[in-house]
Each structure stands twice: as structure tokens, then as C-alpha cells.
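Appendix B. Chain record.
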Amino acid sequence: MFNGENFGVIGGPNTKRGLVIIPAYNEQEALPGTLADLRALAPEFDVVIIDDGSSDDTVSAALRSGAVCIKLPFNLGIGGALRTGFRYAVDNGYTRALQFDADGQHDASQIHALMDALDAGANMVVGSRFAGVGDYRVSRSRRIAMRLLRWSIRRLAGQKFTDTSSGFRAFDAPVLHLFANDYPIEYMDSVEALVMACRAGFDVREVPVTMHERAGGQASNSHLRLSYHYLRLLVSLASTPRRKPTRKPADAAGTIPS
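C-alpha cells predicted for this chain:
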């Protein structure tokens, strides 16, 4: 079970329609605007901020918003922060949750497009930056890396995606249970999680979304780091045996594994 005393949980869940999980590391500049947009455009959702060992005033910014804040004792990386958020969601009875960035790139008005896809039977929904909406741009090196990832995921997961690394995602209860226990904590966790969900037999879909530039803070970009983790990811995924589906996709919605 989730032990709030171990993680510095401040506040408590209201169990509204769903939960927005926001991993945050040194996001004091962007977080207030992000939370204000969520309050204005998606007020029916609870929000939990996972402060990933920030050295700035991220926690204070979260508390001023009235959101629940979980302060990790040190930096785990985004994968570890997200697994904490998924565990919080499961242990507090949420049957749906969204992954949302703290930096202002995601558009709170489009949360409902992801939720509509869950209503239509999806278990996991990815908001795609490259599915024909908006003009989100990336550098040439990242564009090449993304192409390689798309090709790799298609081979490994047996499904085509236009955006394998989007951090704007929605999940139903069975996927939350899977990720609360097994969400990957290494860099490029979003790509590995996509393959994990597909191999587990879940219905994973994309919906087109627009995204914005960062509202503050600094992104972590290192070509050497990206290359290293891309190779690590391919080796890890290629060597991992494919799981047998634990459910038929048509029966997955609303089914919570024991």
C-alpha cells in the first residue's frame, strides 16, 4: 500500500472523475500557470504533483495551488516519479488518470479528447504531437531519433504510432495497476511503457493534440545521452519476452487485476 508518511504527502484525494499526475523537477516557474489552466479547463479532475527531489520552490508552488503534493526524498527520474503517481492513483481508488507535464507544453483543454477515447473503449491513450494537428517542431537530430523509435516500436509492439515519446497520456484502471507495479524507471520510460502496454494486450490508441513551447525551466537535452539510452532501450525491449495478454482488449475496460 502507498505510505504517505514515507513520501511527504500533503493534502488528500477528493476522488473526482479522475486524477492528473504531474511529475515535476525544478518547475517553480512553469507550474503555477499549468495548474491555473487545469483549474480553469479541467476542474473535475484531482491533481497530484510528484516533486522529484527539486532544489527550487516547486513544492511551494504546488501547495499554493491546493493540489496534493508528494515530495520524493531525492531525484528518482521521471519514471520513478510517474510510478509513484500511478501507485497513489491505485491506492486511492482512482479508475482513470492522466499523465501531464508541469512545463506548460500540454494543453489542458484537450484532456477531454483523451478521456473520450477511454470512453470509446481504449485502455491507454497517447496524445500525439504529429497526428495532423498543430505545427510542433523538433530539431533534426530529435526528428531522426523519433523516426527510429517509431520504426522500432512498430517492430517490437506490432502497432504503428506517430508519437512514441509523448508525455500526454490517459489510462484506465487495469493499466494503472500494471504501471503502479512495473512502470519502467529508466530514461525513455515513455517508449518502454508503450511497448509494455501493447505486449500486455491493452488497447492503446492515439489522438491528435497540439502542444506548446515550455513555459519555463530548462529541458534536458543531450545527444550523447539520447543515443546511449536509445541503444539501451532497443537491447532491453528486444531481449524482453512478449507477455501473453491477460485479457481480451474488448473486455479490458473496467477490469482490475487482483
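Further analysis of this model is presented in Appendix C.
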